[in-house]
Every structure is written in C-alpha cells, then in structure tokens.
Specification:
- This protein is mainly alpha-helical.
- The protein is 49% helix and 5% strand.
- It contains eight helices and two strands; from the N terminus they run H-E-E-H-H-H-H-H-H-H.
- The protein has a two-stranded antiparallel ribbon.
- Helix 6 packs across helix 7 and helix 7 packs across helix 8.
- The longest helix has 30 residues.
- InterPro entries: Cyt_P450 (IPR001128), Cyt_P450_sf (IPR036396), Cytochrome_P450_78A (IPR051996).
- Pfam families: p450.
- It comes from Anisodus acutangulus.
- Keywords: Heme, Iron, Metal-binding, Monooxygenase, Oxidoreductase.
- Belongs to the cytochrome P450 family.
C-alpha cells in the first residue's frame, strides 16, 4: 500500500478513497494498530484525544537520540493546551537546536560569515537527523525486517550520520580539554562540557 520512498499520507489518502473509508480506516503495521481519517472533524477528535497521543519510539530515535527525544515524550496536559490555528515548528525547532544546544552545552557559537563551512556542516547534520527521526520506517512495525534488509535506508543513513556527529563532538571536547588544561580551572563562563570535564572519578567525562 505504501510505495517505496513515497509520501505515506498521500498513499493512505488514496487507499481511503479506493476503499470508501474516508471518515475512518483501520489496519495494522506489523503489531502496531493504525487508525486513519481523512475527515477534518474526526481527525480533530483523534488528535485531541489522549488515547492517541503517545507515539511508539522509532528506530532512528533510539539510534540518534539515545531513546530520549521530546517528540516521543509521553502525553500530558502541557502538550494538549494550545491556541487555535496551526504553527509550523520545523524551522523553529532546528534553529532552537542549534542555538540552545550548541551554546549552552558546548559553548560553541557560529558566525555565518567566518564559520560558513562549519555552520553548513552542522546544519546538514541537524537536517539529516530531523529527517531520519520523521521518516517512515517499516522496521519500526516489523522489527524482524531489519535482520534481512533496510527497506527505507534508515539504518544505513543512521550509521553514516553517527560518525559525523561523533567527529563534531570530539573536536568540541578536544577544544574544551585544551582550554581547561591551559587555565587549570573552570571559569565563571563555563558551559556544560567544562563542568563535566572538571569532575573527577566516575563522574568525569570520558
């Protein structure tokens, strides 16, 4: 039903029209039950119901976000309360990820002119990560499938992305270690990595 590399929502909409199930259509993706609606009112009821709020964590989220990511957080009152209308969050979340994580955790700031190449690489890493976390992957519903092949290329792309992320993080940690060794103390402007590197024993960052 879902074509390889196609847009899942278009394939589902086409199937709903074919089977005259525009209001409500139910089927299973492996062991995961799925309910699809092309009717705005019914879709609204589903989206505002706590019974459909929690999302099963994806394979890519486990690999790239260490099984902890805000998109897959359990449902609660905080996430259900919002104003009328729609808000496009993709570009805002990506920008927030760059500014907040790189600044507060790594103490790394990028100048769009001076650090153009490094910034382009970082943006590419973030965009690829977001795409992999949001991509449809049959292995999330049929886990045994990953033992034979990677139908959506998710595993291969995650394996290619992780070393690039590790290289970036390692370079930042090396900069912090060199700076800390030179000053021999944690400054008042220390970031999260500085604090972790200053710990001793089991708490020290490896």
């Amino acid at each position: 039903m879902l074509s390889h590399g196609g847009l899942a929502h278009r394939s589902l909409a086409s199937a709903a029209w074919t089977h005259k199930a525009k209001q409500l259509m139910a089927f299973s993706l492996g062991s995961t039950p799925v309910v699809v609606s092309s009717d705005p009112q019914i879709a609204k009821e589903i989206l505002t119901s706590p019974h459909f709020a929690d999302r099963p964590i994806k394979q890519s989220a486990k690999s790239l976000m260490f099984s902890r990511t805000i998109e897959f957080a359990p449902n609660g009152t905080y996430w259900r309360l919002s104003q009328n209308g729609t808000v496009s969050l993709r570009k805002h979340l990506q920008l927030a990820a760059l500014n907040n994580i790189m600044g507060s955790v790594f103490g790394k700031r990028y100048n769009i002119i001076v650090n153009r190449k490094d910034l382009a690489e970082l943006q590419d890493l973030v965009q690829e990560g977001f795409h992999l976390l949001g991509a449809f992957n049959w292995s999330n519903y049929l886990p045994w499938l990953s033992f034979f092949y990677d139908p959506s290329g998710i595993v291969g792309r995650c394996e290619a992305l992780v070393p690039r992320v590790q290289k970036l993080v390692k370079s930042i940690i090396d900069e912090h270690m060199h700076r800390t060794a030179a000053s021999k103390m944690v400054s008042d402007n220390a970031d999260f990595v500085d604090v972790l590197l200053s710990h001793d024993g089991e708490e020290k960052l490896g």
